[in-house]
Amino acid sequence: MGLNRKLLVFSFSFSSIGGPLALVGQFLENITPFEVVLSLIIFAPITFLIYYLMNKFWDRGGLYDYVVKFTPKLSNYFLYFWFFSYFLYLSYTVDYIVYYILDLNGLISILLTIGIAGSISIITFLDRELEFLFASMILQILFIIPINWHLKLVNPYELSITNILSTSLLYICITLTPFVGNGNKEGINSILLAYLITGAIMLLDSFFSVPKIIYLISSLSTFSLILVEFYSLKSVLSKFSNKSKRYLILAFVGFTLASLINPYMYYIYTIVPSLTALYVSLIIFFISTTLSIRNELKLLGFTSLGLLAYGLYSSLQLSSYYLLLEQILTIIIIGIIPLVKNRLFY
Fold it and tell me: Transmembrane residues, as ranges (predicted)?
């Protein structure tokens, strides 16, 4: 890699948090400055604990490495829920870009879906995710500077607890930063810098009405986040097989093409179990972490678990019998896989 690793790690962390262009373009319109500040404070324990663990050791296995070290019996549970969540994310987010952000349909939507999947596959196959994310970071920063934006007519001190907690959960993918590790600590402060800079940008932009064009351009940020997810999945799978990259790419392309049968239904019926599995995996991770860290940090662990428990609860589709059943079955089926595996092979 020709670029300085610190810059590449920072761009990875910067993109993982949303990235910022997506946070501003897709979610900030109805959020007040006070709610932004509180959301950053509430999520701060998760960011700090991830940074704390990265200072202990930091390798490509990311969160999985920590669970293996601290509570090995929970490691397979974490891995299966986490992998299931982020693998589904890859394909349904392509549909989200095409059919929801850009609001396209017909032949052009099919061609763009295939084009996005193909572009991601090529970047991933060539192992050029970090370089792309660096370029994407620069563009995101340029687009989220509020030049010629109009001030919002809103009370900056108005707040909604639901808005605050929901906004906090938007930062959840910053937990992927550990997966860019390579055994040394170069660029380790990137997660804190990315969090603080993103927070400052969101606070500034929350005083303005976000132009429609920024919403459309935010598809670049969402595209970049797919690459962050792909890189993280590749990193974990490389611990088990050298051929995992090509299989992952083929599976991604296959699922994305299958989604074209009915992209709207595919999106709904994959994002719901994906979010459920994500929160379960992170709850497992923070249980493992909280049991293992120093006593003076355990309060941060319990605070993190509280936010994730809210995330899991808010993800439950209580108004839809079929989606709720899908979520329950997801938890049950993935939960019993390690038990069956242990019975068969040990």
Answer: 7-28, 34-53, 74-92, 104-125, 132-149, 161-181, 188-207, 213-233, 245-261, 267-287, 299-316, 322-340
Locate 135 and state its tokens.
């370029």
Partners of 208 in the beta sheet? 151
> Which tokens in the block code for residue 163?
């808005």
State the pTM of this model.
0.94
Could you tell me the sign of the dihedral formed by the alpha carbons of 114, 94, 90, 234, in that order? positive
Q: How many CA atoms lie within 13 A of 286 on its CB side?
A: 26
pLDDT the model gives residue 1: 43
The Cβ of residue 254 has, within 10 Å, a number of other Cβ atoms equal to: 12
- Higher per-residue confidence, 339 vs 173: 173
| Number of other residues whose CB lies within 10 A of the CB of residue 343 | 8
Identify the burial level of 49 via C-beta atoms within 10 angstroms of its C-beta, where 0-12 means exposed, 13-18 middle and 19 or more buried: buried
| Residue-range domains of the chain with CATH | 5-345 (1.20.1740.10)
Question: For all residues of the chain together, what is the average pLDDT?
Answer: 93
Tell me what pLDDT residue 125 has.
95
Higher pLDDT: 241 or 90? It is: 90
CB contact at 8 A, 102 and 263: no
17: DSSP letter: T
Beta carbons of 281 and 88 less than 8 angstroms apart: no
pLDDT tens-place string over residues 319-333: 889 999 999 999 999
Closest CA to 18 of 124, 129, 140: 140
| 94 Cβ neighbours under 8 A, 6+ residues apart | 113, 116, 117, 120, 226, 256, 259
Sign of the alpha-carbon dihedral angle for 58, 64, 65, 67: positive
Q: What percent of the chain has pLDDT over 70?
A: 97
Q: What is the rounded CA–CA span in Å between residue 126 and residue 117?
A: 14
